[in-house]
Amino acid sequence: MKLNTFILSVLATVLCSCGEPEPGTVTPQQGSVTVDVDRISVSYEAQSTTVNLEADCDWGVAANDSWAKVTPSGGISGKTSVKVSIEENKTEDVRETALVFRFGSSRHEVPLKQNYKVEKVDISDAAFKAYLLENFDLDSDGVLSTKEAGTVTAIEASGLGIKAMPEIASAFPNLTKLDCSSNALTELPVSGLTALTYLDCSDNDLTSLDIQLLTALQTFDATGNPGLTTIYVWSDFEEPAGFSKPGTAQYVEPEINTPAGYKLVWRDEFNSSGETSPDSKLWWYETGGNGWGNNELQDYVAGGIYEGEKIAKVADGKLTITAKKIDGKVRSVRMNTSEGWTYGYFEARLKLPKGKGTWPAFWMMPKNFTAWPKDGEIDIMEHVGYHQDYVSSSIHCTAYVHSNGTQKTKERYLKGATDDFHVYALEWTPEYIKSYVDGEQLFYYNPEDYPKGRTADTWPFDAPFYLKLNLAWGGNWGGAMGIDESCLPAVYEIDYVRVFQKVQ
């Protein structure tokens, strides 16, 4: 802080006088206040500093903003040390206030400035760093900060001898244009640049390139990379008109078909070798035979095992849940993902069990459950054995719930639902919920399509939900037409479960 002295001199009034007037008289007095700073400038950390003051009159002082506090807030004539306590600046901007000294009807301000924490972007390649500092070091401090990098939407760094850009995606999240042509790049990790619409990486030394999340790309030039053989692209890729690549390179779609605009974030392919139980890190179990609110007859077993027998079993690339009568009661499984998600695309390939009394489901419940139906329920697929090959999707909430027949639901006949595997999926966004069977839409729910509109009672679907797989036996719906124990054991087969979320 720069040391300087200023003098405040004002004419005292009868309301604030320095010195003792003669009895019966009002004598104007000339007072003064001296402090040892004319401005304060500090770094972002929480800290305190001192202003030394000398006065021959009463005085007061306060800061204009709450992030700076002064002690004491006033005094009388004499010498005083004023402590200025300054909170940490957690914003991404310089902030300024003032210490205001008051004396009678006069005031004087000491400006106080606090810098923000400059988080440096480390750039490994000297040529790339020089280009960035020349073009984007806005405060000319010789450092490219994360704040400065966050403002960059276009990098045009052609022909600069750049050998590496490992920081390109993490440092420049808002980049829409990248021209890094005619350099010496052997790798270009751009998969995180999901806002990119223009990419020119021609005339480098690339051998592979991953653009499978860059679905916004309109212009792409990878020509002039003689060793480039593989370009990883998104599912159902059709080369846009603005794309160019060398003849040696092939477009390769992901092994797992991914919905446009989404990326895979979680999966269980059930491909472990031999015969095992489901991965306990990925799944947990609900247990008991208490009817589960639907007068169901099965007993859900702990860990997917009953007396050493695997009721939930992983073998031959699939998970099987078997409803089987053991010790006089039907034993089955209700298993849930350990992880939850808010919005996404959820998919499973399923083969449903046959038999009157079976009630398999693939569905979702809120991770932070407090009450039903207040917190919501999403049923991606349900099937009851007495109504074979009819599959349905539903949602339940306070406004729309099956207990009074107001749930929102849709059913469809699906030939071979119990004979073959089919893909059941849910797309859940902040606006709507859709379900699909083999890629064709089955169910759609947007509360704004109904008179009650979007309220907490019609749309509790803005919190994390987890996935559930279970095979119930009997109950209000599964047993509505009776049960047939001759169909036991009944087997529910799951080829995979996958979760995708929107590319941000």
Global structural class: mainly beta
Instruction: Tell how many strands the DSSP assignment holds.
Output: 37
Strand percentage: 35-45%
Number of helical segments with 4 or more residues: 4
CATH topology of the largest domain, anyone?
Jelly Rolls
The 3D shape can be described as flat
Question: Whole-Å distance between the termini?
Answer: 44 Å
Q: Give the total of domains.
A: 3
**Name of the CATH architecture of the largest domain:** Sandwich
Overview of the structural elements:
The longest helix is centred in the first third of the chain and has 11 residues, at 126-136. A hairpin with a 2-residue loop joins β9 (95-103) and β10. The protein is flat and about 105 Å long. Residues 1-29 have low confidence and may be disordered. It is mostly beta strands. It has four helices and 37 strands. The chain folds into three domains: 3-114, Sandwich (Immunoglobulin-like), CATH 2.60.40.10; 118-255, Ribonuclease Inhibitor (Leucine-rich repeat, LRR (right-handed beta-alpha superhelix), Alpha-Beta Horseshoe); 265-502, Jelly Rolls (Sandwich), CATH 2.60.120.200. The strands form seven sheets. Strands 19, 21, 24, 25, 26, 28, 33, 34, 35 and 37 form a ten-stranded mixed β-sheet that branches. Strands 20-27-36-29-30-31-32 form a seven-stranded antiparallel β-sheet.
